[in-house]
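User: I'm putting together a teaching handout on how sequence relates to shape, and I'd like one worked example. Could you take GNAT family N-acetyltransferase from Pseudomonas benzenivorans, show the sequence you're using, and then write out its predicted structure as tokens right after it?

Assistant: Happy to. First the sequence, then the structure tokens directly below it.
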Amino acid sequence: MTELLIRQADAGDIAALCALLFEHGPNPWNHLPEAEVRAHLQAIADGSVQAVLAERGGQRESGGEPLGMVSYRLSRDFARYQPEARREQLHAYICEAVVHRDAAGQGLGARLLQQAVEHLAGQGVQDIYIDRHEENAASAGMMRKAGFVELDTFPDPARRPNGSGRTTVCCLRLAADAAEG
């Protein structure tokens, strides 16, 4: 059995992350505008975006095959969902998550989300947000396995032209007063 390495992505991984996302991410539920997604992943180079990467091969030096990734950044975009006491604090946004088709359905997405959560917790983040198309069952399952709870669903036809056209926002609260919001 081939080893799996999960690690923080760096600037040298950007091209492989883009290739993985654009090959295995497109489906009727995902909003992946190419220029915006490439700019987002390029920001790994300056540290304003972070990502965890799973590779088959087990050794960093071997340039293993990318099997999945989760990208995230610090944000204030979800302040309206923040508990009152933390409304002004930075929180995190999980931006992109993708698993290679050959590795889908094996829990890798949830493992990568958990690694991202642990990394963010180590940075002192208390609230982590993620969103998806309301009808994206695979993403919903991955998010639930990682502990995310649905907070809101709203019409979002510009980003969600298929199905219900709605976005669901989910949150994982790491703070002791998680029951507040």
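A couple of points you could highlight for students: The longest strand covers residues 65-75. The mean pLDDT is 91.
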